[in-house]
Amino acid sequence: MREIVxxxxxxxxxxxxxxxxxxxxxxxxxICDLDVDAPDLHLLLRPTIRQRQAFYAGHEAVxxxxxxxxxxxxxxxCQFGAIRCEGHDYRVVPWRCEGCKVCVAFCPxxxxxxxxxxxxxxFVSDTRxxxxxHAQLFPGAExxxxxxxxxxxxxxxxxxxxxxxxxxxxxxPGLGCPVISSLSGxxxxxxxxxxxxxxxxxxxxxxxxxxxFQTPTAVILNKFDLHSGEAEQLAADCRDQGLxxxxxxxxxxxxxxxxxxGLVVTELPGTKFGGLLREAxxxxxxxxxxAALSGSAGPAEKRPHPTVPRKEPFAExxxxxxxxxxxxxxxxxx
Amino acid sequence: MIIAxxxxxxxxxxxxxxxxxATVWGxxxxxxxxxxxxxxxxxxxxxxxxxxxxAYLQVPRVEEAKCTFCGACADLCQxxxxxxxxxxxxxxxxxxxxxxxxxxxCPAGAVQPDQRELGxxxxxxxxxxxxxxxxxxxxxxxxxxxxxxxxxRLQEMxxxxxxxxxLDAPPGVSCPAVHAVLDxxxxxxxxxxxxxxxxxxxxxxxxxxxxxxxxxxxxNRAGLxxxxxYRFCGEQxxxxxxxxxxxxxxxxxYAQGRIIAKVSAxxxxxxxxLARRLQSWPDLDQAREAxxx
Lengths: 334, 293
Hints:
Helix content of chain A: 25-40%
Radius of gyration of chain B: 22 Å
CATH architecture of the largest domain in chain A: 3-Layer(aba) Sandwich
Number of helices of chain A: 11
Strand order of the largest sheet of chain B: 3-6-7-2-8-1-9-10-11
Shape of chain B: elongated
Radius of gyration of chain A: 22 Å
Number of helices of chain B: 11
CATH superfamily of the largest domain in chain A: P-loop containing nucleotide triphosphate hydrolases
Number of domains of chain B: 2
Oligomer: heterodimer
């Protein structure tokens, strides 16, 4: 089983539109939307939800005003500015609380409860392209890295059960916790970028992140015709870094037309995207399988980051996995 | 006044709007990039940097000679950043949120402060515009601690020289995005009328509504997609303060690293009007009423 994750660094470069189209072309993959914060893939795949589960992550502090004697110990200890004092009333600002339990442990009056935090839901759904594993965090919630790990675990189990050989995941934007979690265990990261100063800047950072975690990386250049100078520069950057450039996709409002119809762009007749993405998909499958690169994609002898020994991405991962197993058990109990 | 420029979906034009707004603001202003994972504002404002410092988070280091292996630190830690075995203590600094609980609770004084590098804070000027940003160290998972320190630096700079502030927030609607807008007076949501844009805009609106701050919308790429965003803003009474037309020439100018407000006279006027409407804030209440009516 091979895991492919589509990321971008910069948001809005076309990750989800590309992922949806690849899911269409691939057939029989497990599809995963790991952008649990602002997920959009379901808008293209229009899933029928088969299974819905609550997602709990961590705890939050709640001060009981009846028991609180107003000593202020909690506010003095909180490193997150999450405890506010109004007159003699102390209360926790939920969106600042990181659930560290310090106030709970040190409250002399034992006035602070520490309930579990219900952060959102995750789903297993049927779509016209196969099974989709996805989620929705409550807006404003945190801990999306943990939810990403949970979705990946579900996808792996489903892939094993269905005999699917590929997990295709739409990743989150940025470089932080959710992206790091989405890279864990991935056989290939495909970065969708655009020929703009932001696109190029963010590509460099996200490629460095992939290198940091020893994830082989390839690039799709979207909207390549927006700026030929930037596009050439990007292609040169990819060559220099030994990154296969899998496709150059045009800037075309047909992407939005497909989106409005709830379709992926390769389902619309007469676009160039089908041919371009089919070719890209073949290379993606080969790269994810660890095959040597071929053709113009990049120097065949130069695999992405071949010399550095693989290390466990992020000390957090093993611990996250154990916590997700705990979450699974908890969810099953409910 | 502090204006946070946010969005649910990425790539809707937060940085474009922030850079253009700062350029036409007409009053002393600071442009602050709080998208520490992928900061881009400097690519457009091209500031001259005058200062920088590294940002660190306090994490634990255990002096095993003093440790009694009682396990109080590991029991308290909610992030599995410290584990105690028979005669061994392990710390996992990458997991630590910097709450200081282990330092406070250790009865033997064996837990000492150490630090983890979060990233870099830089500041300077782009002409008359003050500039500040944070850049997350690659491999660092948590952006809110760095964002808190960028905001602390902002407060120092504002104390020395009061200015209005335009904050370029990260995309999304979870903790980093909420952290970015917490201290603002107004949240300006930039979106596009595509189905992805509308869906994520609704999430952002839901995430930010509990904060009780005035919100307004800027529609980028107007003319693309559907009218769903206009209906949603109408239903929720969210004033639309500006519409930037869908125009390949604008996208191309952005790709050249240009500030959109400087591309043409009509675009400059568009951003001047947006700045004026934000600066005469009470008028927004009327706009809200008008949108509801």
